[in-house]
Amino acid sequence: MSFVATMLLAVACVGSLARAADFTLVDDRGVRTVWSAPPQRIVSLLPSLTETVCELGQCARLVGTDRYSNHPASVKVLPKTGGLDDANLEQIVALRPDVVLLALSARVTDRLEALGIRVVALEPRTHDDVRRVAGKLAQLLGQPAAGERLWARLEGEIDQAASTVPAGWRGQRVYYEVDSAPYAAGASSFIGHTLARLGLKNIVPESLGPFPKLNPEFVVRGDPLLIMVSARNAGALPARPGWARIQAVQHGRICTFSAEQGDVLSRPGPRMGEAARIMAACLQRTAPPVGSAR
């Protein structure tokens, strides 16, 4: 074989090996991207994605986040690029990201892609989504096995929290308020899945979607035996029309959460086990309905 032919073969082999190292990622829009190497400069516009990147051991790759990403502490000092609705395009571009992680609802997606910036949209809404998103991020970050390890840890932590719930709470009706509108965590949401794992029965069925806005009368008719709500909104519950008749309000079976706990509870990511422990701790402090099984 001539020298030239040998060199051409060598170049072809190198090209083939490089292509073999490529990997493909499909995001929650169904958009397929091909990567020759894991991204080294990442902007995250969703707190749960920020936390997952860090939990997978790659916090150092973050060069910017949305204004709500505040965990772990190291991300607090990163440049803040706004939120999903008002992301600062110029600031994101200036950070020279290899990829921007965001939710399906982000308004900046098309403009970023028009500028040639890669975007991966991932939106965890259920427990299965959290597992799937952890797997995709792990793949993107070049740590393919880390996603399943994270999920296994969360499963163990949620099971452990469930084991501490007093038997009297099993099967009892609960209403989890996300916002005073009121928006609720339905049975199909990641919060609803955690409530079910703790043995509670959500008064908001799967058919209403993950986080439906309810007519307040719906909650009155549902007559939950337990209400979970932010501490900021708890005091006003008895004054809402008809809510004084709700058994949870009458008997003070109300779990209230601080703003810091609210962050943990509202993020479908690595702290879901901690969220389950927060809920379980309240159930331990709150007397189950009289006559319930123990």
Task: Give the structure's gist in a few sentences.
With 294 residues, the chain is an alpha/beta fold. The chain has twelve helices and eleven strands.
Describe the model.
This protein is α/β, with parallel strands linked by helices. The chain folds into two domains: 127 residues, Rossmann fold (3-Layer(aba) Sandwich), CATH 3.40.50.1980; 119 residues, Nitrogenase molybdenum iron protein domain (Rossmann fold, 3-Layer(aba) Sandwich), CATH 3.40.50.1980. It is built from twelve helices and eleven strands. The strands form three sheets. Strands 7, 8, 9, 10 and 11 form a five-stranded mixed sheet that branches. Helix 4 links the parallel strand 5 and strand 6. Helix 5 runs antiparallel to helix 6. The longest helix is centred in the first third of the chain and has 19 residues. The radius of gyration is 23 Å and the shape is elongated. The chain starts with a helix and ends in a 9-residue tail after the last helix. The N terminus is likely disordered.
